[in-house]
């Protein structure tokens, strides 16, 4: 850790810093894996599952990012995501998965358009219209699922017939040897092997597309004139307007994009994760996506990291039959908090340090006195993790300045 | 050579004539000041020149060519740029991003940061604006932000700049810097139209002055050729003799209203914002605090009001309030005019009568027991509006609809109508025009005669010297000198404020 801090201090390069963080995390993970003796912590199955669980959350988060960067709080992501699952199911089972994808985008776009008209053109409170969007999305999907799927072969009132799978890649020549390497249990090496083998195992093309969208969003929003204008609308729309930027136009583009991204997350759930549309399939992932976006400080990289953490813990929890992996997560949490406490000490934030230290110590004692965790606790673990992370990260977060404020042309103050 | 010529400009709004037959001639490469009271029509005139509004009659000629504007972009096209009083900057974007926004240089669809940076530095260097492109605007001070605004306008190719009350938000040394920058611009042949009602500053910077009163041009002066004083300008502006803040005789009694002992407040960096302050204010006494802004005045006021943690002892008419909350303190009869009216004194999105309740929500006429009495509060608001000459269409309009001066009169009215024994007044006449200023002074003087104790903080040294019965100078959180308002000059006081010399006491 000392070495990490020294390197951190010695460099100003962002890439080196990210590398330091990644390696420190891998080392911590490795230590936890060895101490708790849970090989599955970084196995191919876990990583592969984590990736699949992270993508829909990440896409919802990215959708939230687009909208909020233009100053619109899109709490309707969940509703748009549901519309996406329905669109994917409805067109997907009839015309194949690619049509399903298009259907999801179309339905997401339609939902976002309604939301955009309400919030941007009519200036309705964004939380209220977003909540309405969620109710509308759910109700619409439930009703039309009954209409469309009840009599369909293999379908039912709450479920579509199965959708053909999208192509996915397994590169056995890379993945399989690494699985063997992972089983050897070397420090760090095994973790890297586990991660790489997981990535090249049943990698859905949608995951690749999602990753591409993250990079594209980062590039468009931060490197192009279009992106600057869009962000300026979220920071100070009156200033943007005074320089000839069409505020409404950029807000519309942002919200429509937001809806399509959330719906794509929904499509992933329907097509890639389960192969059917099922009622309640999203399970609040739209909201969790929003949380990961906040955790990620309204940036694509951070949002992706947040989604990854979430997907990872969710995957562990799902694969954890006897509670030993979740016990390891407790230790992992304790170590991460301990590191944060040390950092707080260096920054002379004694209260934060104290709080973090106490929680960390409590977690470690918990880890020591238990051998496995009850399933119920495992279920809430991802949510608990989000809550904790948000509680401690929120001090450093900086939302767009005009986020959530309806814009009226000419009402400058 | 004329840069801008406006002739015979008329602009009518329902019920008012904002501009009647205004004539303005601005030479190329000069600083031309337009002075007038709030509401005299100078802002309307500038909006017409910048294409934001259309004149009903009259012609606009820019660089010798007659022009009709239909939007600001037309004005920008002929090289006119406007620096608004309220900055139009996005805090969380960098200086570079703020400047290029809307006319970004790009290369293959990508924002060309290199070219933008080069261009910004070029402009910054050639006019001496001293701007760093890659910092966030949120890290800049007010003076820097203003120069970013100026650069923004220059970046778009403006040769004629309109500055709307540019010094209203600046502290003295920032004003100096701004004037240096303006002189730099002038030397490069840029024409500057400078709107202000701060007459000393106008006399310092302007090559020509046009005075506007009630929508008419009443005088065009050339201070470089003829002798013009601030008093003459003010009289031209108001159309009558200038009010002064002078008080008559002493009304100081020996009854102590506010007594402060060893007052110290430590900020979160562990520094003492105010340290060990001791003073007393008697009934009928106005104690003025002089100091360059940011030397502990705000902290002192907040400590007395109980909105900032402090140690020491504060006694209000015999009651030790050190451990009481703000409401308890106010209920003892403390009135408060905060320094930032839109942030601390008003709810801008609430109607006037609700604002009247604010801060006095436990007392008649606003409340009876635990219940608010909106009816009585509304009646009382009407009285305040009438007595304090708040110009408003009614008491149901939102506070944000009022001009700054009228907002301030409403606040003063609210605070004075609760029969206070102590008034804490921070910059009570900041940003208000001469007429409203005189009215506020009148109310302060009358209250003083009735035995009100006042703690007055003001950056306007004439006001401070004129109104106060005694003055203390604050520097880095400590009282460094006392001054006698009967014989101290603003210059001496100014020197004491910067710690240069001790004021004569």
How would you portray this structure in words?
The complex is a heterodimer of chains A (413) and B (505). By secondary structure, chain A is an all-alpha fold. Helix content of chain A is 74%, strand content 1%. Chain A has a two-stranded antiparallel ribbon with strand order 1-2. In chain A, helix 15 (324-346) packs antiparallel against helix 16. The longest helix of chain B has 16 residues, at 172-187. Chain B is globular. The mean pLDDT of chain B is 86.
Question: Notable features of this structure?
Answer:
heterodimer, A: 413 residues, ABC transporter involved in vitamin B12 uptake, BtuC, two-stranded antiparallel sheet, 17 helices, 1% strand, B: 505 residues, alpha/beta, 6-stranded mixed beta sheet, 27% strand, globular
Lay out the secondary structure.
The complex is a heterodimer of chains A (413) and B (505).
Chain A: H1 2-10, H2 14-36, H3 44-69, H4 77-95, H5 97-121, H6 126-149, E1 168-169, H7 172-184, H8 189-199, E2 203-204, H9 205-223, H10 225-235, H11 237-242, H12 247-274, H13 285-295, H14 300-319, H15 324-346, H16 350-369, H17 375-393
Antiparallel strand pairs in A: 1-2
Chain B: E1 2-13, E2 16-27, E3 31-35, H1 42-49, E4 57-62, E5 65-67, H2 72-77, E6 80-83, H3 95-100, E7 106-107, E8 110-111, H4 113-127, H5 142-155, E9 160-164, H6 172-187, E10 191-196, H7 199-205, E11 208-213, E12 216-221, H8 230-238, E13 256-266, E14 272-282, E15 286-290, H9 297-305, E16 311-316, E17 319-320, H10 326-331, E18 334-337, H11 341-345, H12 352-357, E19 367-368, E20 371-372, H13 374-387, H14 404-416, E21 422-426, H15 434-449, E22 453-457, H16 461-467, E23 470-475, E24 478-483, H17 490-497
Parallel strand pairs in B: 3-10, 3-11, 6-9, 9-10, 15-22, 15-23, 18-21, 21-22
Antiparallel strand pairs in B: 1-2, 1-4, 4-5, 7-8, 11-12, 13-14, 13-16, 16-17, 19-20, 23-24
Helix pairs in contact in B: 5-6, 13-14, 14-15
């Amino acid at each position: 850790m000392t070495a990490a801090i020294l390197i951190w201090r010695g460099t100003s390069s962002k890439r080196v810093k990210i590398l330091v963080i990644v390696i420190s995390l891998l080392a911590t993970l490795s230590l936890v894996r060895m101490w708790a003796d849970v090989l599955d912590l970084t196995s191919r199955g876990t990583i592969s599952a984590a990736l699949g669980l992270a993508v829909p959350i990440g896409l919802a988060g990215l959708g939230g990012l687009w909208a909020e960067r233009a100053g619109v709080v899109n709490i309707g992501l969940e509703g748009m995501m549901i519309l996406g699952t329905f669109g994917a199911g409805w067109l997907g089972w009839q015309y194949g998965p690619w049509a399903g994808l298009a259907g999801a985008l179309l339905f997401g776009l339609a939902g976002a358009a309604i939301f955009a008209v309400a919030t941007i053109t009519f200036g309705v409170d964004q939380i209220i219209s977003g909540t309405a969007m969620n109710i509308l999305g759910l109700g619409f999907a439930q009703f039309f699922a009954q209409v469309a799927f009840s009599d369909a072969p293999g379908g039912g009132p709450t479920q579509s017939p199965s959708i053909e799978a999208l192509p996915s890649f397994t590169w056995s020549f890379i993945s399989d040897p690494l699985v063997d390497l992972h089983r050897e249990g070397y420090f760090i090496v095994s973790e890297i092997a586990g991660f790489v083998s997981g990535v090249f195992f049943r990698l859905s093309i949608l995951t690749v597309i999602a990753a591409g969208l993250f990079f594209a969003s980062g590039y468009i929003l931060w490197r192009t004139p279009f992106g600057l204008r869009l962000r300026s609308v979220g920071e100070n729309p009156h200033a943007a307007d005074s320089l000839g930027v069409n505020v409404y136009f950029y807000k519309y583009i942002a919200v429509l994009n937001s809806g399509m991204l959330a719906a794509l997350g929904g499509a992933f759930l329907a097509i890639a994760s389960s192969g059917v549309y099922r009622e309640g399939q999203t399970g609040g992932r739209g909201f969790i996506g929003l949380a990961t976006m906040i955790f990620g400080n309204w940036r694509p990289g951070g949002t992706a990291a947040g989604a990854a953490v979430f997907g990872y813990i969710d995957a562990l929890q799902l694969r954890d039959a006897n509670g030993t992996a979740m016990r390891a997560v407790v230790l992992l949490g304790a170590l991460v908090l301990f590191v944060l406490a040390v950092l707080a000490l260096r920054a002379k934030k004694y209260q934060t340090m104290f709080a973090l230290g106490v929680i960390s110590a409590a977690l470690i004692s918990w880890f020591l006195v238990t051998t496995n965790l009850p399933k119920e606790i495992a279920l809430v673990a991802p949510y608990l993790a989000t809550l904790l992370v948000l509680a401690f990260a929120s001090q450093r977060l900086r939302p767009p300045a005009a986020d959530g404020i309806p814009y009226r042309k000419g009402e400058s103050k | 050579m004329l840069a801008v010529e406006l002739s015979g400009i008329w602009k009518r709004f329902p019920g008012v004539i904002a501009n009647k037959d205004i004539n303005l001639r601005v030479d190329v490469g000069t600083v031309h000041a337009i002075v007038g009271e709030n509401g005299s029509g100078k802002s309307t005139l500038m909006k017409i020149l910048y294409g934001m509004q259309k004149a009903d009659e009259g012609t606009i000629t820019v660089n010798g060519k007659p022009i009709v504007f239909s939007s600001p972009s037309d004005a920008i096209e002929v090289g006119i740029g406007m620096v608004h009083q309220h900055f139009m900057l996005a805090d969380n974007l960098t200086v570079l991003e703020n400047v290029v926004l809307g006319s970004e240089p790009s290369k293959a669809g990508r924002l060309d940061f290199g070219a933008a940076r080069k261009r910004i530095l070029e402009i910054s260097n050639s006019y001496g604006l001293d701007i760093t492109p890659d910092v966030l605007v949120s890290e800049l001070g007010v003076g820097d932000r203003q120069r970013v605004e100026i650069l923004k306008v220059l970046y778009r190719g403006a040769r004629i700049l309109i500055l709307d009350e540019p010094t209203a938000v600046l502290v003295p040394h920032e004003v100096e810097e701004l004037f240096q920058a303006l002189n730099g611009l002038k030397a490069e042949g840029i024409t500057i139209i400078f709107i202000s009602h701060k007459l000393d500053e106008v006399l310092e910077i302007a090559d020509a002055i046009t005075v506007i009163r009630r929508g008419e041009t009443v005088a065009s002066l050339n201070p470089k050729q003829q002798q013009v004083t601030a008093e003459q300008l003010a009289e031209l502006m108001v159309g009558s003799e200038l009010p002064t803040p002078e008080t008559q005789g002493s009304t100081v009694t020996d009854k102590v209203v506010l007594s402060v002992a060893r007052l110290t407040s430590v900020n979160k960096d562990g520094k003492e914002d105010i340290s060990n302050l001791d003073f007393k204010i008697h009934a009928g006494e106005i104690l003025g605090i002089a100091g360059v802004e940011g030397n502990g005045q705000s902290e002192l006021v907040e400590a007395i009001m109980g909105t900032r943690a402090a140690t020491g002892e504060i006694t209000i008419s015999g009651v030790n309030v050190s451990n009481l909350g703000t409401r308890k303190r106010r209920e003892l009869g403390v009135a408060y005019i905060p320094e930032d009216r839109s942030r601390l004194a008003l709810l801008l999105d609430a109607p006037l009568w609700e604002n009247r309740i604010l801060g006095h929500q436990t007392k008649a006429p606003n409340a009876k027991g635990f219940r608010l009495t909106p009816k009585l509060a509304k009646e009382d608001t009407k009285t305040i509006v009438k007595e304090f000459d708040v110009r408003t269409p009614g008491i149901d309009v939102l506070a944000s609809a009022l001009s700054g001066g009228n907002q301030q009169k409403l606040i003063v009215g609210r605070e004075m109508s609760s029969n206070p024994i102590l008034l804490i007044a921070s910059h009570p006449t900041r940003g208000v025009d001469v007429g409203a200023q005189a009215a506020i002074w009148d109310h302060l003087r009358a209250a003083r005669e009735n035995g009100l104790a006042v703690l007055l903080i003001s950056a306007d040294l004439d006001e401070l010297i004129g109104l106060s019965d005694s003055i203390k100078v604050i520097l880095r959180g400590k009282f460094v000198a006392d001054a006698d308002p009967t014989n101290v000059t603003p210059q001496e006081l100014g020197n004491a404020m910067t710690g240069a010399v001790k004021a004569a006491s």
